[in-house]
Structure formats: C-alpha cells, structure tokens
Design brief:
- The complex is a heterodimer.
- Chain A is an alpha/beta fold.
- Chain A is about 30% helix and about 30% strand.
- Chain A has 6 helices and 13 strands.
- A 9-stranded mixed beta sheet of chain A has the order 9-8-7-10-6-1-4-5-11, with helices on both faces. In chain A, strands 2-3 form a two-stranded antiparallel ribbon.
- In chain A, β4 (about 55-65), α2 (about 70-75) and β5 (about 80-85) form a beta-alpha-beta unit.
- In chain A, α2 (about 70-75) crosses α5 (about 195-200) and α3 (about 95-110) packs across α4 (about 130-140).
- The longest helix of chain A is centred in the middle third of the chain and has 19 residues, at about 95-110.
- By secondary structure, chain B is α/β, with parallel strands linked by helices.
- Chain B has 2 domains: about 1-185, HUPs (Rossmann fold), CATH 3.40.50; about 205-324, Rossmann fold (3-Layer(aba) Sandwich), CATH 3.40.50.1220.
- In chain B, about 30% of the residues lie in helices and about 25% in strands.
- The radius of gyration of chain B is 22 Å and the shape is elongated.
- The model of chain B has no long low-confidence stretch (mean pLDDT about 95).
- The chains are: A alpha/beta, B alpha/beta.
- At the A-B interface, α3, α4, β7, β8 and β9 of A face α4, β7, β8, β9 and β12 of B.
- β13 (about 230-235) of chain A pairs parallel with β17 (about 300-305) of chain B, so a sheet runs across the interface.
Chain lengths: ~260, ~325
C-alpha cells in the first residue's frame, strides 16, 4: 500500500509565540520547531498501516530548507521516502500551498503510480487555515473527510471514524482516498537510536513547483491584547476549601 | 447581491455555533446593505427552520437530495457551491466548527476562491475586503486582505454572542435541488457509534481539569469525585494524554476539545498556550496550583495556591458537609 503524508514544520506548540517586527511572521529566534501535532499522528498512522499491510510511506512538506528536519524525523519513526518543496517566503497562502502540493503529488504519481491513501493533518497548528487538504483532494479527485480519529483499511475501502459529541461518525471511502486526521488517533512512537541514525542518511528529494498567490494576503500578524485580569486568590492549601465552595454557591454550580 | 449563512446542524438539530454565524452574517449584511438568507442542507433540516426565525432570517434556502440524507462534507460543499453559483451571492459565512470549516473548504475548492477560516471581524471594501482571523487557536491574530469574486468566511467559535432579532419574524423557505454526482456519496456518514449518553466536555456546566501535577492515572480519582459532586466532567491537558493517564477524548486544548463551561477548575495545569486556547472561553476559571506564578493562575479569575492532592479532597469534604 502506498501512503502519502503531507506535513508542516511549525514552532513547538506550548511555546509563547512572538511576532517579527514587520508583522509578517513569527520570531523564530528562540523557538524550537516540530511537526504540526495532527500531522505527527498522521505519519505514525501511515507507518502502522504499512507495518501490518506492507507498502511504503512517503512524507511531503512545503517549507523552508530547515523543514528537512521534520522529514528526517518522519524517517526516524519509519517513513520510507522524503520529499521537500522548498520555499523561501514566510508562509504561502492556503490556495497557493494547495496548488503546489497538488502539482508535486501529480509529479510523484506520474512517476510511480497513484497513492492509495493521502493523509493530512486536520489543520496546521500555526496558520490553522482548515482547507489545504480539502483543496488538494478535490484537485486530485479523491474523496476526503476531516477530523478522523481512527482508520481501518480494507481491501478496497477505508473505514474512518470522526469524533463528535458523545460518539463517532463512521465513513466508508473507496481508495484512492484522502483523510484529515486529528491528534488522538494514536500515540506517536519515539524514534529509536537505529531510526535516528538511519534518518541522518536518508535521501531528501526536492520538487520545484510553479504556483501563484491565492486571494488571501497577510497584512500582519500580532498578539491579541491580553485581558489583564486580577486573579482573586481564595486561599492557600486545604484551608481554602470553604472559600472555594462559597464561590461555587455564588456561581450557582452546586447541584 | 446577497449574503448566505451556512447553518451547521445534525439531522435537524442546529449547532449552537450556527446562531453565532447567523448573528455575524446579519450584522455583515446590514453593513453591506444587502439581503441575506440562511442555508440548511439535508434531510431533517426543515426541523431547524423554526429556530432561525428568532434571528431575523428573511429567506431560508432548504436543500434536499437523495444523497443528503446525512452529513457528507463533499455533498454539502457541492450543494452550497451550486447555490452560490445560481444566486448573486457576494459572501458566505459559516460557523468555525469542524463541519462549518470543512464544508467551506469544499466550497472554496469548488469555486476556486479564497476561504478565510475563523474570523473575528470582516471589513467589506470597494474592491478587496479585509478580515481579522485567529491563528494558533487564538493566541495570535492575523489581518488579511481578501480578493475574491465570492468571499468565504467562517466565524471563530465563541468569539461573539448569538443575539436574536425578532424584528423580521418568520421568513420564506425556498427549496433548492442540487445536481449531485453519485460519487459524492463516498464521503457521506455511513454509520454512527454512540459512546456516551449525557453530558460531555462541550456541554458540561462544570469541567474539572487535571494536568501534569495530578501525577498519575489514579490521581484523577479525586477529580472524578469532584466532577461528580458538581454535575460536571473531567478534562485534562496534553501532557496527561501524552502520558497515557487519560484518553485523548478528555483533552482540552488547541488539538483537543474547546470548552466553554460556567466553571473550569484547572488542577495542576501550568497553562501552556496549547491548553489555554481550549479553555479560555470558560465563563469562570479556578486554578489550583502550587506555583503562584503559573500561567494558569495568572490568567484565571480565581486561584487556590496549594497541592491539588490536598485541596481537592478538602473541597469535596466541604461540599458534603454543607449538603448534609
């Protein structure tokens, strides 16, 4: 089975994000970078599928030359083939990103045949445009469903579950198909020493694409005004319990 | 010219976020001085029509087709794209829910137009429009310009209140029959699995959250007990799910569930941005933490400085004492 996973290099979630002076991007000076969390899970899911069913996992990213780190990380946890679409700009808009990925995937498939399954993250942790996977799948004529938290691969179909309030929706898609997956679909493994060493030698293929700007243009990025709220300290240690339950009564949350 | 608001509903039950999108769309149509209508897609959607009247909806476009018996992102997206093409629509808004964003992305792909997800504000202009949208789940904002034939937006969930407007009353319902290819059935819901009945993270009035400070899966026992006493549910941070102490479905945060309860009690949670953006819509936050400088303590309205392993049992005991 041939699986493609599209990933994005993003600043490590949890860090305080500062913006560059010109407001065009995040200040990377003191940031660690990682694979966007949903996509790290997508790589893990793809590797698990090929471990049981055979086949190969190709990981594709559009990003700065440093995004090679994220591709090598994917190799260290089991991906077989790495492809980078290098860009110099800060961040491409969603339409342009999708057009470039579509173009690159078209090239890969023309050379080696169609991917049975293409996995995207539900949305990137940083820009959060909620659309690149859908645009690519539509351009390639593949069905796609987002928000997927479990995948079962059959002979010609994929059964995918999406979490909703109080349960799951089940989708049955014929392959070739595409899915947008969410964190929680699995718990990604850590690379082994052997995996790390092998990934250093892995070959990273490059693909150049020709694409033009879409209709959404960034003016500036900025931090929202933080609401300065004075925290009311109800007390210290277990002695605060009385004040806490007073608060519960005041808020009307005691049944 | 007109504006459309896509309503997210599940077999006739309207998503609350749709009311936010209706309020946003009504306001935007007012500023543009154009007519506006709501779009309901699929079987059962007619049951939601009655709820729209309270929001001043003049026209409801009710789309039905044999492929629209249940939710399908592609079938819904194609339906809405066809409705846009068949009308003089200048803008479409939806709510920034999983479905709202997914269907709008489908519409955008089909119309080859930009789609600006999770907006806080949209500013119409003569040529290009501009908008403010959230990035990083709300910890950064981005101003963008939008050059498009049809402007497609979603409204960030919890970013604005839903306000009824009874001035218009019940509007007209216009049926719409899209022309859908059989292949669109490939991404329609095939089955459903009901896992829990009753309250969930998104509906609970109280969420009792635990972070790394809880220390173990067993440590959540006291939090479960407190949640039970308050008629709430337990949530957790990403560190907790990464340690395997709780299932991912309990995770509150950017890559988990966004919550908005009356009260969120954050126990032993440092309050990293990833977690904060999932919890910040809570109406009240009480942080329990040993560290008075913890981000969660600084941002919370109320805090107790102390070890949750002592504080939580003391709170439970105090509740019992007052109830007996």
């Amino acid at each position: 089975m041939q699986i493609l996973v599209c990933v994005k290099r993003v600043p490590a979630p949890g860090a305080r994000i500062n913006v560059t002076e010109d407001g065009q991007g995040v200040d990377a000076a003191h940031l660690g970078f990682t694979t966007s969390p949903h996509e790290e899970c997508a790589v893990e899911e793809a590797v698990r599928i090929t471990e049981t069913r055979g086949g190969e996992v190709t990981v594709l990213t559009l990003g700065p030359p440093e995004a090679e780190e994220q591709l090598r990380y994917a190799a260290s946890v089991g991906a077989h083939r790495l492809v980078l679409i290098p860009i110099e700009d800060v961040d491409w808009d969603p339409q342009r990103t999708a057009a470039a990925l579509t173009d690159a995937i078209g090239g890969l498939e023309a050379a080696d045949g169609a991917f049975d399954l293409i996995l995207f993250g539900n949305e990137s942790a940083d820009a959060g445009g909620f659309q690149v996977g859908v645009r690519v799948a539509h351009a390639l004529g593949r069905p796609i469903v987002n928000g997927i938290k479990s995948v079962e691969v059959g002979e010609r179909t994929i059964s995918a579950r999406r979490e909703i309030d109080g349960g799951f929706e089940v989708y049955e898609l014929p392959m070739p198909a595409a899915l947008g997956v969410k964190e929680g679909i699995n718990l990604p493994r850590y690379p082994t020493m052997k995996g790390r060493l092998a990934s250093k030698k892995a070959e990273v293929g490059g693909v150049a694409v020709d694409s033009s700007d879409g209709g959404q243009t960034r003016l500036r990025l900025y931090r929202p005004e933080e609401q300065v709220s004075k925290t009311v300290i109800l007390g210290t240690g277990p002695e605060a319990a009385g004040a806490v339950v007073d608060l519960f009564e005041e808020l009307g949350v005691l049944p | 010219m007109s504006l459309l608001v896509l309503c997210d509903h599940d077999r006739g039950t309207l998503a609350e976020a749709s009311l936010e999108a209706l309020t946003f769309g009504r306001d935007l149509a007012g500023r543009l001085d154009v007519s506006w209508g709501a779009v309901l897609i699929g079987s059962g959607a007619d049951q939601a029509v009655g709820h729209l009247a309270a929001y001043g909806v003049g026209t409801v476009h009710l789309a039905t087709h044999e492929l629209l018996t249940d939710y399908g992102p592609e079938a819904w997206g194609e339906t809405l794209a066809q409705l846009v093409r068949s009308t003089d629509t200048t803008a479409v808004t939806a709510c920034g829910t999983d479905r709202g964003n997914e269907v709008m992305a489908q519409v955008a792909a089909r119309l080859d137009e930009p789609f600006v997800a999770n907006c806080l504000e949209v500013r119409p202009g003569d040529g290009s429009w501009s908008a403010t949208r959230v990035q990083w789940g709300g910890s950064l904002l981005e101003d963008v310009t939008v050059d498009a034939g049809v402007r497609l937006f979603s409204v960030a969930h919890h970013a604005q209140d839903a306000t009824p407007d009874s001035a218009v009353g019940v509007g007209t319902v216009t049926p719409f029959s899209p022309d859908l290819d059989a292949s669109l059935a490939h991404s329609v819901v095939a089955d459903r699995v009901v896992r829990t009945h009753g309250i969930t993270l998104t509906t609970a009035p109280v969420v009792v959250g635990g972070g790394r400070g809880v220390g173990s899966a067993e440590g959540f026992g006291a939090l479960e007990e407190l949640a039970g006493a308050l008629g709430g549910v337990v949530g957790c941070s990403r560190a907790v799910t990464n340690n395997g102490w709780r299932p991912h479905s309990d995770q509150v945060g950017q890559t988990g569930t966004r919550i908005a309860p009356d009260l969120y009690i954050a126990n032993g949670i440092s309050g990293a941005i990833q977690h904060w953006v999932g919890a910040m819509a809570s109406k009240n936050i009480l942080a329990v933490n040993t560290d008075p400088e913890a981000n969660m303590v600084v941002k919370a309205g109320y805090a107790v400085i102390g070890d949750l392993h002592q504080v939580v049992p003391a709170i439970i005991e105090e509740i019992r004492r007052r109830q007996s």
